[in-house]
Design a protein that fits this description.
Blueprint: H1 3-8, E1 30-34, H2 50-55, H3 57-63, E2 67-70, H4 98-110, E3 114-119, H5 129-137, E4 149-150, E5 173-177, E6 183-188, H6 203-217, E7 223-226, H7 255-267, E8 274-277, H8 284-288, E9 298-299, H9 302-306, H10 311-325, E10 333-335, H11 344-347, H12 368-384, E11 388-392, H13 413-417, H14 463-467, H15 473-486, E12 496-497, H16 499-502, E13 508-512, E14 517-522, E15 528-529, E16 535-539, E17 547-548, E18 552-557
Amino acid sequence: MDSDVLTRAGQADAAPSPSASDPLWWRSAVIYQVYVRSFADGNGDGTGDLAGVRARLGYLKDLGVDAIWFNPWYPSPLADGGYDVQDYRDIHPQFGTLAEAEALIEEALALGIRTIIDVVPNHISDQHPWFQEALAAGPGSPERERFWFHPGKGADGSEIPTHWVSSFQGETWTRTTDPDGTPGEWYLHMFTPEQPDLNWNHPDVRREHEEILKFWFDRGVAGVRIDSAALLIKDADLPEVGEKPDHPTEDRDELHDVYRSWRAIADSYPGTRVLVGEIWVPDIDRFTAYLRPDEMHTAFNFDFLARPWGASAFRESISATLAAHAPVGAPSTWVLSNHDVTRPVTRYGREDTAFAFLKKRFGVPTDPQLGLHRARAAALLVAALPGSLYIYQGDELGLPEVEDLPLELIEDPMHFRSGGTDPGRDGCRVPLPWSGDASPFGFGPEQSDPWLPQPADWSALTVAAQHSDPGSTLNLYREALRLRRELPELGDGPLEWWDDAVAGDADVLAFTRGPGFACVVNAGDDPVPLPAGTTLLLSSTPLERGALPGNATAWLRTDAATDPTPTITHTTEAGAPRG
């Protein structure tokens, strides 16, 4: 595959810029998550950067995405992959410059691709000027009021103020040392000690984050993804969990005032600037309270992501999600993975296909072929559901989790804070393979070493290898996103379960999207016949004598007489999906 085609495909015939007057673009958008450090390396230092992203914008346009969501790209010591932000008004020097970010936003928009950035309001880096000033100022100072500094318990203050548990396991308080060398106050960090929590009861904290939103909206970003959005507010009494009806650190009612103020800022800009929440709240009604018309536009639906493989589990999650979103008028979001989660190809090949952070361990066996079949089927399922769709970089290539990284190269704090039992999240953050037969597989210039090693057998999974293979996972995604864009039934809109098509088979899931489109998922192992009177548009696995194989999804036209789209069977000569 020609390298110019690989990097610049689609730019010559770029679509017009999205209209600033389109207020509903976000309700059906396909949003591609870019983990900059691992996307593409433009300068050969082994780390992905904005130059690499800019060179691959044509690839994203050809894939068919509407927006790019960037993980934090700000200056950071990288104690937690950039989620320890040191300066929100600049770009990490490993990634590039603020001018490059501004150019990227403009270039992507010219291709019809909006930009969404990450903010991390719960905490900042311990190297942020605010925290360094607080340490220097000492107990009782105004500088410390922006954080959660507190004396310890016990006669000598040596006992932690609370026993709250970190999201990364372990304790949530670290003791400071006073200038004279004696032990001082403790400070709160719900993640790592390098990420001190901000005190959202302080006006400086609220004002600063409102100014950060304006800074990036002024530079053309179309939205903001809010990390750990349900954790900002803490109970100032510092009760232990269970001492009061409300949780002391999670999903507190005062949060909604914060997001109402953010929504007012977003609404003051043209073109609908969206707020997207990362909200891990198990109660679906509490979850959707964040999506009322004057708060966030959308939030990640982690319930579906965490479900085990199976028709009943999928249907239960889809039904509950759609029902909860309906009263607030918000679209659902659908996502199979992200930079924190085991990749679907690996997860769906395991005996336990559900996802939970605390269950991650080394050496869990997986069936990669079964996982690939299921990941492809799940990709078509979520692409057919109402609302917006998120794709994590590399899922469109069918990449597996890299589970044999050398221990000395693991950087994720989740690994270290678990005492080494949790493999961490680096396995889904390995740099992407673009072309070639050996590392760095086009991620950077030849002879450059990616910051995490790529598996030697990834040559068949590169973009170049999959580009001309009609049965590749990349081309499955491309075709699915093309149909999603062209078929009026897909994207935001109604869904109805098609129980007549299931015929009582507990392993089969079927629904319609309007009168002309249907999706059938066979989550079992045995082939099932497709409903009579339908025409195949796309399938994740080739049909077997007209039947849908196990662990496969089919998109169907239910009114072939008026079908303007050619019938497509997504197959390979060998009869099995590749890549």
